[in-house]
Structures
1.
Amino acid sequence: MNEQQKITDDPRRGAILQAAFDVFVEKGFEAATTAEIVRRARTSKRTLYEFFASKQEILTALVRYGSQKLQPSPDLPEPHSRAQFLAVLEQFGRAFLREFLHPERTAMYRLAIAEAGRGGALVARELDASGRQPVMRAATRFFDQAAARGIVRREEIATLLSVYFSVLIGFAQLQTLLGTEPPLGADAIAERAALATRAMARMMQPDSADG
């Protein structure tokens, strides 16, 4: 195990991140203090600064950790047929939606919205840079690979991605953020992923490569 991995796995670091998450969500990023984070983590400022140079660095670590769980697997297989493409897409949809609607991620989005209302965009920028952008790059790469196999038309990739994520997410995130509906359960997530995949199947060219 290298030194960076040891630092990442250190339980003191984990305690600081958990305490910081609670304080950020409760008080907002700007109002949160390292003193309060240290108190809740039951550690010292000296220990905190061994791992993080600033409050902003703690936030960045929190967002990146959550976003790593959201991102598609680096082993997402290159599609070689229409059937495989759709099967992988449905599997990805289930995993993505499960993490995207996770209560901790919802709390971070609420924090980003609250901070934006106060004129601060740091949380939103971190969520976008570490969450949405890597996911879209990975999804676009997957669709590009499909286009190279003749499974989808390259000129339609942007439209297909837009429709796929629109159907997959729908109003679920908004309803979860507002608290008007409970988070989707496993069955509802599976149904939504299947629906988004069927939408792709209908939009794809009928003479797509079959393998």
2.
Amino acid sequence: MDIKKLNKKWWKKEVGYQIYPRSFYDSNNDGIGDLNGITEKLDYLKDLGITLIWVCPIFKSPMDDNGYDISDYYDVNPEFGTKEDLERLIAEAEKRGIKIILDLVINHTSDEHEWFLEALRNPESKYRDYYIFKRGENGLPPTNWRSHFGGSAWEKVEGETDENGNEMYYLHLFSKKQPDLNWENPEVREELYKMVNYWLEKGIAGFRVDAINSIKKNARYLDLPVDGADGFAYSIKYTLNQPGIEEFLGELAKKTFKKHNCMTVAETPLLEYERYNDFIGADGFFSMIFDFSYSDLDMAKEGFYYSVQDVKISELRNKIFESQLTQQKYGWGAPFLENHDLPRSLNKFLGEKANEINAKLLATLFFFLRGTPFIYQGQEIGMDNFERTDIAQFDDIASKDQYQRALGEGFSPKEALYFVNKRSRDNSRTPFQWNSSKNAGFSKNEDVKAWIELTRSQDKVNAESQINNENSIFAHYKNMIELRQNGKYSDCLTFGEFIPVELENDEIIAYIRKYENQKVLCINNFSDKNQQVELSEIAKNIGKKEIKLRDILINNYGNIENDGKVLVLERYQSLLVAI
């Protein structure tokens, strides 16, 4: 492995931090987080040690899906501030050695985008072909596909019924206010490329690329077998990772990303591993991708909250190993525990057993995987889910749909609410808890009501109480970042080979990072009981008969029980140790 060659890829050394701007910090007392709020908290992020911020959508939007419905790609949504505020954020972050990447949403626009408005106004306009319009038959939409947010993926266009009584529809894989763009139209693609280059030239470091493996649709537009009581079908067979998408992605990369020394991290759910080389290989479309294979283990049926289940540690281990080995074979990944579309990781992976000790265990397991790690706001202080007592308390469009979907499948209102509480995207979108005040320090005026309800746990979980506490979860994250960025084993923990440690014990997840003459073991006991591991069993995984534990880099307990042959891990103990 050529370290000089690796170092050319600057983004491999970064530590990412995802910000959901509405919920990070409100600088102007309107109950909504904003760009100036992020700028004001840059010193906090600098202290934590992160080097790159992914800011969720801040472009002009009606906010039907909290900014993922963009009505103007060239302007900032007034609730977040101005273009000048964005430029100031980029400049102030740069002074602190922090880069900014933005969210790139180009599978769809808002139905209030000027292109779509013109497409509706004038069916003969060129903008009609910027989107996907199809006629239905016999009073039915073109296909029986279900939108990701529920109901038909086709919305009727009023006043465009033909002489046979067949109505016109447009496709929206997400909400009806998010019409899908027609990527088959070269003019659409060129418009998007122009916009991407505009922002890269403004000084951002790159993009997180949203829903990008949905841009190619199967042109036959066929029905699928109904899979729910609503009479619709999950559309991904014909709308996700379709053959031929490589042509679009290759062109996108060539005309935008590869013209700049930028970083891209793509959202590509359910992408087959055998296609990874095209996506993240030496000449791949993206710098890295998020692999969701282990993030949805808490749902037995993909995309259905009512199938929520406990995560088996053995299954989590197997998925992590498979993901890491595949990404290592082809390119680079982006390990993560949380994001704006998922519940909090402590609740998902640890449930009622979650505490400060095993929060550190979970953090250590994921942070030192091979790839550019991403931390989601609040994760570094152990923020958790918030249980709501009525569906009316939810803001998230998907949560409301999933509640209705569960009722349609025969579950009671109580059961449906339970499922949504466990899985809702609102869990990760509650305001960041800066201190223990009434509104958790989210707004300068503590009497201001936030746009979404707080978790109410700020008296126990907040940044202010953890920043100067050397035993806090925050301190643990800060220590991990310092080790990866500047420690003796930095190259090993960044560029090192990932070696899975196969053990007979299903309660333990362990792996080794190896670089040149350095080897670091990460071993994690997910059991609430002490576990014994023979060091010779670990040694076998690297072709050795025995190993010795040398420098202890991380230990979420104060002690280690090790006689040189057997390592005893206490309940939820996590170790990062040079061997």
3.
Amino acid sequence: MLASTLRAASTAAVRRCTSSSSAAALAIRAYSSADSDFNYYQHKKVAMTGPRFEQTDLAQQPNPTPAIDLIAQEPVRKVNTHCGPLGHPKVYINLDQEGPHKCLYCGVRFEQEHGHHH
């Protein structure tokens, strides 16, 4: 509907044009012969593809190490007693099996010291 209205308006404008304004008449004729599927909301064929702001450079933005990676770098804590949590949340972590065991809350790994008797 918008295309037909624009085409009708441009045709009427061309009829009113005098010979002295032939450049304007040619521009209006060129517009009126545009594709019939023109729509105001249609995407433009040439769109901006770069960042929205020139100042945005992701290489210069802060990129902190995620907490899960920091916990993974923490060394395994060796435990040589069954005395309790010792600076850890009050949860029981079964260390009877060999190897490190991760706390379900904080991710810190604990391991029973080798040679320690149960």
